Amino acid sequence: MHQHICSHPRVIQINQPTIVKVRLLDNIDDLLVLASLSNPLFEMIISQVDGVEATLILRQQSFVSIEFEKTQHVAERFDVNRHVGQGVRLYSRMAFAPRICIEQLKKGFDIILQVDGDVYFTVIENMPFELIPLEQDLRLLCEPQVLVVAKTILGQKASHGESSTALALHISEVEHVRRDIADYMRGESGKIHPGVSTELLKLDLLLQNKRQWLMRTYHQSLERPSLSRASNEASLDIEKLQQKLECYNLLAPSDVTELVNQLSDDEN
Q1: What is the model's pLDDT at position 12?
Q2: Cβ(80)–Cβ(123) under 8 Å?
Q3: Higher-confidence residue: 26 or 267?
Q4: Residue 190 near residue 143, CB atoms below 8 Å
Q5: What is the enclosing helix (H) or strand (E) of 111?
Q6: Which carries the bigger pLDDT value, residue 108 or residue 245?
Q7: pLDDT at position 54
Q8: HSE-up of 264 (CA within 13 Å, CB side)?
């Protein structure tokens, strides 16, 4: 099982047709989802079956919400049927662009479960996701630690409201994991699985983009004392003061203007 990316097991009891509602949690960075789409969104094992009742063991990725809702609807077809001890994994379809998969995850989609001696799984038609039996899962990949850490760093969201110190910490984390990726690929040259190598290069590019955004945000936080003020507010204040000074020069008596000029010259 995918211990490093999935949650702790949940035990689910099914005693009638059930809709499994799968959707993306709120406030999840698209970069994290993009980096994790090659892994299963959830894994479900059939623990017990007794007539129309079943016990399932579920593990899921942390950014996915999975809820169970009873229904009277019975599907006319099924995609996969499983016996006791067997299971399925939910993957994004390889023929669909990741952007489409992420958009559908945000909207959510349903899977129908039915129990009748076996457990029957049905994915709503035309969804960019598919259920794959465990014994037929050829996508299974044991990821190196540096890959897991890179995805974790990508999933950490930084906001404009954070202090410059916090942003600097984010930048340091990104640079550190990018160095780890470079060291890993250099040290394991010729030994890395091509799929892992491609994944690391893709993550390194995403990390580079995140670093650029963090650097811009960091410099903005240093250039202005408050995010509620525009970065050019100081120059605007100077222009207003110059306009006021010109008005005073026009309206003030000539002797007062000369006196002010003499005082300013003396100070300089």
Answers
A1: 94
A2: no
A3: 26
A4: no
A5: strand 109-116
A6: 108
A7: 94
A8: 6
Read off the amino acid at residue 239: E
Q: What is the largest CA-CA distance in the chain?
A: 106
Number of H helices, E strands in the chain: 7, 10
The residue type found at 4 is H
Measured CA to CA, the distance from residue 172 to residue 9 in angstroms comes to 34
Pairing of strands 118-123, 18-24: unpaired
Q: Which amino acid is at 234?
A: A
Residue 23 in contact with residue 107, Cβ under 8 Å? Answer: yes
**Which amino acid, 252?**
A
CA atoms of 249 and 128, how far apart (whole Å): 72
Beta strand 129-133 with 87-92 is antiparallel
At 262, which amino acid appears? Q
- Taking only the tens place, the pLDDT of each residue in 214-231 is 888 888 877 655 545 555
- Cβ partners under 8 Å of residue 106, min gap 6: 23, 24
DSSP-assigned letter for residue 128: S
- At 35, the amino acid letter reads A
Residues 6+ apart with CB under 8 A from 239: none
The residues near 55 (Cβ < 8 Å, ≥ 6 apart) are: 11, 12, 13, 14, 46, 47, 48, 49
DSSP reduced 3-state for 17: coil
Q: Provide the token pair at 127.
A: 């969804």
Rounded Cα distance between 92 and 98, Å, is: 8
The answer to whether residues 131 and 89 touch, using CB atoms and an 8 Å cutoff, is yes
177, 153 contact by CB (below 8 A): yes
Give the Cα separation of 31 and 51 in Å (integer).
Answer: 43
Structure tokens at 155: 């999933």
Residues in the chain: 268
Q: Look at residue 154 in the predicted model and tell me its pLDDT.
A: 80
